[in-house]
Amino acid sequence: MREQAHPSRIASAMAFPGREGMGIIEGDGMELSDEHIVERARNGETEAFGILVTRWERRIYSLALRLLDHPEDAREVTQETFLAAFRKLHQFRGRSRFSSWLYRIALNCCYDRLRERRAEPVALEEADGLTAEEQVLDRIQHKQIAERVRRAVRALPLEMRQVIILKEYEGLTFEEIAEILDIPVSTAKTRLYAGLDQLRKRLERWKDAF
């Protein structure tokens, strides 16, 4: 019987960022697909799941950070996502892409974290002090604009926010988003355009206020 991978190996793989894109190479020099590597992980190849972690860790962290707006929560959710994927690997049937399946797990982990937040007392955030360099006018303006956009996105309803993040930040197609969220493509498009319209109006109000 082959040795089975252990969750501790997942944590070990996640400790070495920057290796995204690494993969198992076949004899003809072609990199194996995620689905082929999943099959190898199921068959007990201990390093196979670590390859999936290094391929997708930064994308999942980016998604979690934009949804949660909290680096520590995003790191924890990223690890929770891969642990959940590891435990549920036998449930992956290949009816969708592995990436869509993984994004769906990540979104569910984010939803759980958001629910936990609502149950906790909310503390007011303290503004970070500006360094001397950040006091240069153009850098301050750039920071203010970026902060307004971030707040505007965060203020959108979750169903719109997640589509905007997946489309505009993660670069997914409408078809991929529809598959991940289990909604029609037309609904994904409607949520994106409605969300962008709300975002534009909110930013215009802020612009008029200054």
H-E string: HHHHHHHHH
Structural class: mainly alpha
Query: Whole-number radius of gyration?
Result: 20 Å
Relative helix content: 55-70%
Output the CATH topology of the largest domain: Rna Polymerase Sigma Factor, Chain: A
Integer count of domains: 2
- What is the average of the pLDDT values? 78
CATH architecture of the largest domain: Orthogonal Bundle
End-to-end C-alpha gap: 68 Å
Q: What CATH first level of the largest domain would be assigned? A: Mainly Alpha
- Count of DSSP H/I helices: 9
Q: How would you name the CATH homologous superfamily of the largest domain?
A: RNA polymerase sigma factor, region 2, helix turn helix motif
The best one-word shape is globular
Biggest β-sheet strands, sense, barrel: none
Number of strands: 0
Residue windows where pLDDT falls under 50 for at least 5 positions: 1-5, 15-23, 122-136
Estimate what percentage of residues fall within beta strands: under 5%
Structural features, described:
By secondary structure, the chain is mainly α. The chain folds into two domains: 1-120, Rna Polymerase Sigma Factor, Chain: A; 130-210, Arc Repressor Mutant, subunit A, CATH 1.10.10. Helix content is 66%, strand content 0%. It is built from nine helices and no strands. Helix 2 (34-42) packs across helix 3 (48-68), helix 3 runs antiparallel to helix 4 (71-87) and helix 8 (174-181) crosses helix 9 (185-208). The protein is globular, with a radius of gyration of 20 Å. Residues 1-5, 15-23 and 122-136 have low confidence and may be disordered.
